[in-house]
């Protein structure tokens, strides 16, 4: 027998836990959080690679309703962020709502009963509303490389780090130069015998203004909350002022580019290596990375930078696209995630019997980044075109939580067994506006191929505005953008006297 709940939340990262807290604060206690793993934390549970840390300042990378005056550093590491999420879970009484080891295998809308039917690894559920908070950084992307299956040594993705493998004294190859790789390389370089970095595209790297937050600061933030709020506000304001350069005037990023080049010159004296590490696209087109030890690590005697992607594996030999061949004992992929083709989309079937993946075959699109046409009472946290290039995703999550709260209020006002489904015209109008604004952004004009773009070159991930603007457009649900669905009225088996043949009692 399926357990019925008012709301089923999929995922227990920042988005899922944030949704759970907001539900409780709205007085909704009839909900479950379905998590495929055996613990909460999302990407901060899965990513445990050496050096793993956040590239957004700690006081901004936390919920506004759950401030943490005890952050130890400007940029906190993975253990501290995961511990923060555990504290949020306990503080807001979320444990009874958690259903761990409950991967959602399928979610199907039942139009007759006006509810979602979910099949999970721990049993069946039905729900009036489903909140998908699986996040874009959930499922690692491994490139298809000929011969990879026959590599004799350990192979793993950065998000599935194998801590049973001892890399000391081994020849290790790292594939990729994204946010994970630039943390992994300096962390493992001192202990491996040889480190080879396969770099398909160099990254723009800025200095990381990290330091220990002093005991005095932590005491002050705990005793005088206004100081903590001021720090968060300053961090937020600086990033809001930067948005225009990313979204409207990429030419204004020239100064930032000059800072990055100076950072590279200071760390890398070899002109040939420096040339290999210098990008040929506009800064900001790919995510800007922050590190003080990445470039120095690449100059060490036991490190080789191959300015080409990995093309083939021949036994223990790795062959780059430019023909360079090296031997390796272990292979680590820092090749990102399935962002524009999220696997959960294949498991969700809407009102017309069509999966979300089929609906999105020409590109992901959701009204206000939160609801999709054809999928009643389904909301996304971190949905299409809600990603940021320079600020904290927690700000976007909290805006979508406001929208979720008002969505539930609207259902309560409408009464009965009711559903709201985004009108295709509203979704299309919203998406056309987003894509029109995207034409001027650095992500579309900067001359790079990034994870912001799907296979057809459409930017279906980034938000082309400020976080303040997104909060405004998700403050309330506009019912004109939705079709109201009600439970079908069932005809009585026998019409009362006085009703003509074929009439239906109301």
Automatic annotation (TrEMBL):
Cofactor(s) listed in the protein's UniProt record: FAD
What InterPro entries does UniProt report for this protein, alphabetically? FAD-bind_Monooxygenase_sf (IPR051209), FAD/NAD-bd_sf (IPR036188), Flavin_mOase-like (IPR020946)
Q: Which Pfam families match?
A: FMO-like
This protein's UniProt keywords: FAD, Flavoprotein, Monooxygenase, NADP, Oxidoreductase
Q: What's a single GO MF annotation on this record?
A: flavin adenine dinucleotide binding
Biological role: Catalyzes a Baeyer-Villiger oxidation reaction, i.e. the insertion of an oxygen atom into a carbon-carbon bond adjacent to a carbonyl, which converts ketones to esters or lactones using NADPH and/or NADH as an electron donor. Thus, can convert bicyclo[3.2.0]hept-2-en-6-one into the oxidative lactone products 2-oxabicyclo[3.3.0]oct-6-en-3-one and 3-oxabicyclo[3.3.0]oct-6-en-2-one. Is also able to catalyze the sulfoxidation of methyl phenyl sulfide (thioanisole).
Give the record's family classification: Belongs to the FAD-binding monooxygenase family.
Q: Which PANTHER family match?
A: FAD_NAD(P)-BINDING DOMAIN-CONTAINING PROTEIN-RELATED, L-ORNITHINE N(5)-MONOOXYGENASE-RELATED
Question: In its UniProt entry, what is this protein called?
Answer: Baeyer-Villiger monooxygenase
